[in-house]
Task: structure prediction
Amino acid sequence: IAPSERRTIRELPDELVSQIAAGEVVERPASVVRELVDNALDAGSTQIGVRLVAGGVRAILIEDDGGGIEASELPLALKRHATSKIRSLDDLESVTTMGFRGEALAAIASVSELALVSRTPAAGHAQRLDARSGELSPAARAQGTTVEVRELFFSTPARRKFLKSDSTELAHCIEAVRRHALVRPMVGFAVWHEGKLVEQWRASDESQRIKDVLGEEFIDNSRPLEAEIGPIAIRGRVGLPAAARTRSDHQYVYVNGRYVRDRLIAHALRSAYEDVLHGQKQPAYVLFIEIDPARVDVNVHPTKIEVRFRDSGAIHQAVKRAVEDVLAPSGATAPGTGVV
Ligand code: ADP
Ligand code: MG
Result:
């Protein structure tokens, strides 16, 4: 290309824009599972099924019994920046749905073979939309939505090369469902791999779900936490220092129902355990933090795994003190109260 030509500014084609966006949102099959389960939850589903082939690389089918998508809106659901979840900046400030960016389906469709099958309560039958051809056809299913994602990264071999073995990708997919399952006890989840049921969590309550997901051993080796400080409410279970492990795989923090990895909260937890935990041991914990949505910005990262707090100091202090109170040797504080 001649230098003069190289400098021409061009608008990128839609498809390419989506593929670039997909780079941020869709890293591996588990990212697709996360986004699609988010959508199923936002649709008010009570049962969510995840069917995987080859660790999700060949196929990911997510079926729900939620509100469905109107046939006339199916093509819109696949469009970039098209969403039913927010209408204005004000809505963004108080958003309570998992999604709101209207990006996931467009991004996933740009790096896979995607089809939507959906039926609303009012519809006489389901409709199927094939993303690539844009073809709409009648289909059979009960109320709800099935999203079929096949051959992830088939058109971007460079990306596909970064994928690990099927069993590793499967483990990541299951972990993605587990993160949702912990915080949505009233929703039933099931995961199949190549036709075989590999994980199932039946609808229940919070304490039963924690037990179902993290096991009896975690319950035996942890204490309940419940604290309220000003506008911040924290509940969950924190692992006893004696039961800390070398792996950090039982560390779950949620802010307003959203799984997050937050450095501030991680730091608060580390300092709460500082005096009672030795060496490189990792404590286990599940924390559900509830805070006025206006005080936390979830629109920091496309995957929304990072958040930004308006009063980060208060959050840090609340988490640290709530956890310290539970971990305090009995006598110092009544176990389980953790009131700050
Ligand atoms: P977002 O979730 O940010 O709105 P998505 O690209 O994930 O963006 O989805 C686009 C739209 O498609 C959603 O706003 C929603 O209206 C619709 N949608 C997607 N998945 C489902 C589902 N499982 N059930 C009902 N509607 C869905
Ligand atoms: Mg979404």
The longest strand covers residues 222-229. Residues 215-327 form a domain with the Ribosomal Protein S5; domain 2 fold (CATH 3.30.230.10). Confidence is low (pLDDT under 50) at residues 331-340.
